[in-house]
Amino acid sequence: MFSAGHHRILSTIGRLGPMSRTDLSRVLALSKASISMLVRDLLTQGVLREQALVFGQGRPSVTLGLRSDAASFIGISLHADPVTIVLTDPYGEVLARHLQPRISEPEACFRSLAAVVEAVTREIGEGGGPVAGIGIAQPGFVSRDRRVCLASAALGWVDVDVAGRMGSLTGLPVFVENDTNALILGEQLFGGFGDRPDFSLVFLGDGIGSAHIIGGRLHRGAHGGAGEMAHSPIAIDSHAALPCRCGNKGCLETVASLRAIRGAARQAGLEDDLALLSARAADGHPDALAILHRAGAALGVALAQLVQMIDPAQLVVMIEPDLEQSVFTRVMRQEMETHVLRRSGVQMELVLRAPEPDSFAKGAAGLAAKHYLFGEDWA
Amino acid sequence: MFSAGHHRILSTIGRLGPMSRTDLSRVLALSKASISMLVRDLLTQGVLREQALVFGQGRPSVTLGLRSDAASFIGISLHADPVTIVLTDPYGEVLARHLQPRISEPEACFRSLAAVVEAVTREIGEGGGPVAGIGIAQPGFVSRDRRVCLASAALGWVDVDVAGRMGSLTGLPVFVENDTNALILGEQLFGGFGDRPDFSLVFLGDGIGSAHIIGGRLHRGAHGGAGEMAHSPIAIDSHAALPCRCGNKGCLETVASLRAIRGAARQAGLEDDLALLSARAADGHPDALAILHRAGAALGVALAQLVQMIDPAQLVVMIEPDLEQSVFTRVMRQEMETHVLRRSGVQMELVLRAPEPDSFAKGAAGLAAKHYLFGEDWA
DNA sequence: ACAAGTTGTTTCATGAATTGAAATAAGAGG
DNA sequence: CCTCTTATTTCAATTCATGAAACAACTTGT
After folding, report:
1. Ordered structural domains, chain A, with CATH
2. SS3 content of chain B, % helix, strand, coil (to 5)
3. What pLDDT digit, counting tens, does each position of A204-213 carry?
4. Residue limits of the HTH marR-type domain (chains A, B) (predicted)?
């Protein structure tokens, strides 16, 4: 379909936004002649469009952008129950959304998902292009080729050939990825931060996950387990260290996860609702303050360790808006900063971001979009 | 000098060891025709040699190896006082070694180093090829282009154009790198472990440093600060947390560095010698045991965090042989393992390795060797 | 000893990707 | 209307890599 040259152009425009042929020639270090030919192909194929004239000295340049109806992508999140299925355009705009109960038995799960994919594909109207692929985000470990779920505790899956089965049910290319990894890849492609070769993402939910983009590529680790931080021993020597489901004590997850925070609130006789807890803390309720302080401090220490080890240009923390304005975030930030050595003039950017309900599914769609735009070996 | 194709062949043989043309064609996914031509060039240029016949079915294959007299490389370690300067061949074999006092004032330092380089270059006899470049390993931060020392606390340097000055003094290409980074790059090239795309190295000395090879490339971080672990807050809530020179308390360095171990030994009224301390611990001396146990446990926790976050295929810990057989190492390993979640059947390899006196200088020479073998943009 | 089979290496004409230089296009500014 | 500047296209040439076939050098079986 596309040659390597075509993919280089598409991925550049996908990452850096619309630009002229001359810009492309500069960025890609290719001759104007090559760009001219490659762009012509992409225009006739209906993937790019000439979308504006930019006037300066000399002949105006024509900015080239992705056509939003070039192709559509399906993203499926198995991160939580209900399962989310979205259809997006190449910019990550959601064109359609479905929710479904999560089914653990693989075959039944795939059949019900395939039925939704079928329906969504048929529903595409004027605005959307043909579906180019399916991305699936799921908790657990995924094989390096993004086809097989090696192990997922949450789903109870071991060595399930997700891409194979879904592929033969739908006839579309399928890409499977760990949920947090899918999330960061979605951020990378659709997040609108331009081209950041090195950044990390931490997701705070009922569990805690992190993922890293290093040198522009997802870092999956030698065994696909990179980014595990939920069981980092943070409160290890504290006398109050809680036992964790992993068998150790004092894991980050036992203090800072939303589940842990709600649990601590219940134990203290408070409502297990984050908004209420934050409000109580803001009013000065000592137990509420203590719980959020402890959780924020623990996460802050873990973030500091991440920053020291990985040194990302930017750290995106996905956190419930209910917590964002609370003492939790304040303490987290402060604790992180005290434990990060800083060379003068050098600063890492910390970004707080509220997870949207579609975040994981959009990330999953991004997997398919990356394959379409970037080609076979983009990660 | 060499084309990209030539570099691909040289780097493959440098990393994976000698191999036949047909092997190269398989590994590099290039046609036999291309390999044939490229190899011919390298043979006539005296960089490769046909070094053995391997008999199997059919025509025997000719293994191609790097000629050890193809080129020599100079490595300079500013890691500690005395400065070490070595001359190596492309296999990392040390052909000559010089020691010099470390001079802080940049210009004087460069002049004295350049004089040694001059002398070493003249001394090369039969065995060695022409000097192809100089690598410099130094504590502190280095610019992304490996030319400028941005900041080095140990040397007191800020924005010193090391490569520029040394280059004009010697007329050779110069590459500067952080000392721990140079060490891991040396391990990668000369370590004899073949081709490991993902591994990490921790150096335990008076300070503690780590470095990571990710996807076959050094991970330097967005600000060149990746791998910092000396100030990871490990013993953070312990009542015995010691103040650290960084201003915080409970940093890894305050417990596990050799300096800290020796300091703790002195405080306990013991000799500040690692071998003696290990021996005492082996005899059951309670203070010695406590000191080594505490240090080993702290490092073990830090290693666990590293493994969880990065998930390397292999973790090389460079540690004094005096400690290697002691309770320190035993506790370190055990503590690390209890805090690493393991998926069944998946194992990370922990390698203990004694630092040689030339380790840093050899790593530095490796910088120049990589440039020679791999071409401009290898990291 | 000889033929057949297997694998490694080289040769050569071909094709694809990319390029530099020149030509052309489309504006701004006088 | 002319000149200057910058963007884009055209075109012939070059570089790079390739597939197929030839050639080489061994092992194995008879």
Report:
1. 4-66 (1.10.10.10), 72-190+359-374 (3.30.420.40), 229-312+321-353 (3.30.420.40)
2. 40, 25, 35
3. 999 999 999 9
4. 6-50
